[in-house]
Task: inverse folding
């Protein structure tokens, strides 16, 4: 056997040092949790536990960011291409376990079950689609990109096709899908920071933004990689502790992914009992009456708005004349001020309220039966058969978009530039799948265990005995938790409790009866998940502006060090813009993230796959394919946006093609991209550019193929 080379010896020493540093971090983290648990037992206020967790973890990330600071281009863009596969897999998993995966995935399974609801695919589609996407990355993309020694994904389009248009289109597409994605992460950051510290949501966004910039501003990919390794360890503990405890509490075993199926049959029994329960029927009847009230108002919006204003004004006057309690007068005034300002806004608000009340008037508050594989019935009425077919179609469409989007996400693919060689890239994908599977196998279990806890223990409680966390979370955002005694019997019914998708994971420790220190850890885990993804996304966007679009070149920024510095300031500017948009709370985290996957799939997947595996693919073809594929996807999303259709006076779901939901628009854009590239490559096979180079390189950039 030959003796190791000096490089191999040096690399082995480097990896041993990494193992030691990670072990020290794990010991420090466990010590922090232990100390905080002891302090809570000794009387430490809950109001301090959250901020301490937030401050401790952010300072830890800041130390890693400072230690990893660099102005070297190779280090800033790709961490020196020396990250071991094991740690790159861990960092990729953290990059991947965004706020959507950590916060919203279990919530989607809780609300939608396996079948989905309201035309949406069930939460299981996210588990299958995101996991399958990594298989595509391993088989089709990662090793070939690593062989080219690139910095960014648009570099692939530049090197493979030549010219400036493929690179510019790829850069703009990277900015578009990454910005959509990062807004969702910063929204999650603001949500968690406000819960941890008790500050307003907008202030929470700024606090979280500071954590993002501390991680990524100084060291780029070098600092982000090791920050993400630390963040993965935190979010792994934060996810596994509640689900393990719930499984042990309910089933007597900590192995939740293997044991939770026994709770499915119990949930099925509870669902049937709740559907026929008289108190639940009374709640549903009240929501139905409310829906009819809003429907009556919508028949003549102007008159109804004027009448509602006169009624509330008269109520305020009557209360004052009766010397009523000040709180009653203040409540009436708030209702008066909350009235829509004009008929158009009243129509939008009342339309949403009518739809929501109609949904909650259905059995189980509009939630589907958890264990049903698809909506509808293949052997039922024509309407039930249509619902069944649409449910299956949306399930497959969403899986396809998530798989193709995963294989085209710029911030994810850049991670495979950081490993030493192609073999390590393949191994890194395998480690990524392993670390992601640990959490993705636990998410369905957590959804089932939480639903059983709610149905079996929380429902039926007196309102005076409800846990404090319900009121605390509702103060953060009323869309997260809504509890109303609709039938006025003083007892909580299932239909009277509305949990948002982003709530299920964050409230699981308190629902399970764990010490509040675990709630702080879970919030810190969600914070880490959002931070880790936001770091990579912001770096991708800033690199797209500076490295790929050559921003600043005309102003004399020519050196590699100067461009790195410019990238840092571009990152700062993009982060502030994303925080501004996130403060509007544009949509649920999962919806924003799903849309970004469709955008990435239609923009990048056809061009990359065709460019790697078909030598004939030309520059003109890929430009046209990217424009048409992305154009179809964006048009479908915008045309079916509720605000757009409402503004144009159109039916809410009238623009759907075959019932495909807007978040799965990539299922239309990707085939258009592939077909366009294939046809256009025959029409324009290899046209010469003005500089004498071929529009499509004649040599194969992938020697192994």
Result:
């Amino acid at each position: 056997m030959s003796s190791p080379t000096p490089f191999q010896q040096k690399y082995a020493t480097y990896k041993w040092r990494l193992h030691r540093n990670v072990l020290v971090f794990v010991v420090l983290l466990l010590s922090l949790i232990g100390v905080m648990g002891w302090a809570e037992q000794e009387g430490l206020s809950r109001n301090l536990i959250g901020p301490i967790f937030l401050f401790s973890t952010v300072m830890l990330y800041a130390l890693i960011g400072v230690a990893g600071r660099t102005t070297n281009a190779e280090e800033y863009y790709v961490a020196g291409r020396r990250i071991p596969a094991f740690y790159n897999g861990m960092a990729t998993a953290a990059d991947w376990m965004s706020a959507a995966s950590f916060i919203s995935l279990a919530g989607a399974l809780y609300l939608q079950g396996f079948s989905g609801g309201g035309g949406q695919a069930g939460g299981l589609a996210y588990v299958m689609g995101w996991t399958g996407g990594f298989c595509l990355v391993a088989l089709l993309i990662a090793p070939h990109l690593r062989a080219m020694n690139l910095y960014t994904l648009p570099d692939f389009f530049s090197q493979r096709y030549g010219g400036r248009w493929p690179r510019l289109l790829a850069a703009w597409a990277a900015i578009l899908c990454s910005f959509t994605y990062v807004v969702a992460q910063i929204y999650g950051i603001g949500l968690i920071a406000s819960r941890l510290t008790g500050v307003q949501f907008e202030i929470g966004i700024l606090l979280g933004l500071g954590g993002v910039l501390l991680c990524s501003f100084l060291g780029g990919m070098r600092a982000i990689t090791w920050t993400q390794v630390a963040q993965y360890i935190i979010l792994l503990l934060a996810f596994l502790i509640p689900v393990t405890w719930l499984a042990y509490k309910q089933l007597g075993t900590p192995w939740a992914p293997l044991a939770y199926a026994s709770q499915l049959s119990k949930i099925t029994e509870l669902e049937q009992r709740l559907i026929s329960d008289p108190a639940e029927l009374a709640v549903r009847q009240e929501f139905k009456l409310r829906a009819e009230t809003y429907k009556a108002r919508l028949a003549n919006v102007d008159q109804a708005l004027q009448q509602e204003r006169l009624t509330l004004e008269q109520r305020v006057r009557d209360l004052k004349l009766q010397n009523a309690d000040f709180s009653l007068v203040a409540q009436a005034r708030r209702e008066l001020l909350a009235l829509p300002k004009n008929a158009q806004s009243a129509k939008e608000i009342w339309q949403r309220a009518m739809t929501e009340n109609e949904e909650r008037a259905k059995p189980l508050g509009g939630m589907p039966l958890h264990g049903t594989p698809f909506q509808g019935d293949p052997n039922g009425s024509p309407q039930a058969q249509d619902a069944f077919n649409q449910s299956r179609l949306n399930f497959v469409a969403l899986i396809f978009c998530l798989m193709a989007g995963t294989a085209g996400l710029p911030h994810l693919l850049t991670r495979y530039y950081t490993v030493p060689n192609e073999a390590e890239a393949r191994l890194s994908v395998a480690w990524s799948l392993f670390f992601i599977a640990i959490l993705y196998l636990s998410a369905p279990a957590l959804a089932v265990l939480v639903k059983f806890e709610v149905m079996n223990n929380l429902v039926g409680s007196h309102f005076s005995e409800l846990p404090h966390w319900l009121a605390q979370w509702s103060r953060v955002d009323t869309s997260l938790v809504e509890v109303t005694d609709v039938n006025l019997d003083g007892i909580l019914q299932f239909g009277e409790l509305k949990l948002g998708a982003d709530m299920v994971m964050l409230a699981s420790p308190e629902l399970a009866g764990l010490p509040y220190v675990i709630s702080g850890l879970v919030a810190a885990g969600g914070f880490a998940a959002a931070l880790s993804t936001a770091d990579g996304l912001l770096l991708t966007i800033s690199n797209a502006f500076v490295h790929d679009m050559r921003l600043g070149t005309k102003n004399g920024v020519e050196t590699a060090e100067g461009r790195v510095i410019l990238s840092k300031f571009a990152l700062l500017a993009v982060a502030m813009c994303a925080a501004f948009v996130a403060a509007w709370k544009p949509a649920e985290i999962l919806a924003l993230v799903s849309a970004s996957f469709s955008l990435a799939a239609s923009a990048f997947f056809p061009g990359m796959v065709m460019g790697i595996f078909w030598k004939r693919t030309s520059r003109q073809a890929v430009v046209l394919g990217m424009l048409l594929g992305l154009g179809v996807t964006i048009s479908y999303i915008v045309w079916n946006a509720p605000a757009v259709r409402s503004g144009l006076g159109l039916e809410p779901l009238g623009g759907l093609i075959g019932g495909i939901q807007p978040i799965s628009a990539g299922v239309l854009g990707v085939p258009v991209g592939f077909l366009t590239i294939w046809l256009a490559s025959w029409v324009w096979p290899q046209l010469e550019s003005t500089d004498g180079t071929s529009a499509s390189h004649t040599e194969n950039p992938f020697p192994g193929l």
Remarks:
- The beta strands are 481-483, 497-499.
- Confidence is low (pLDDT under 50) at residues 688-705.
- DSSP finds 28 helices and two strands in the chain.
